[in-house]
Amino acid sequence: MSMRIDLCGGFGEKGRTSVAVSGGDRRILLDAGIKVGASGAEYYPVLPADVGDIDAVLISHAHEDHVGALSWLLAQGYRGRILMTAETREEASATLDAYAEPDDFKRFPLPEERIELFEPGDSLIIGGLTIATGRSGHVVGGVWFAVDDGSRKVVYSADVVPDSSVFVMDSMPRCDLLVFDASYGADPVSGTARAQAIAEWVAARPGGCLLPTPLSGRSLELMAILDGPFAIHASMRASLAVQIEARAALHPTMVPQLRQRLAKAIDWHDGDALPACPLLADDGMGKAGPSAMLLPLADAAGYPILLSGHLPAASPGDVLHAAGRADWIRMPTHPTLSGSLAIWEGAGRPTAFGHSCPPGMLAELAPHMPSLRTGLRTGDSYTLAA
Question: Which InterPro entries does its entry note (predicted)?
Answer without folding.
Answer: MBL (IPR050698), Metallo-B-lactamas (IPR001279), RibonucZ/Hydroxyglut_hydro (IPR036866)
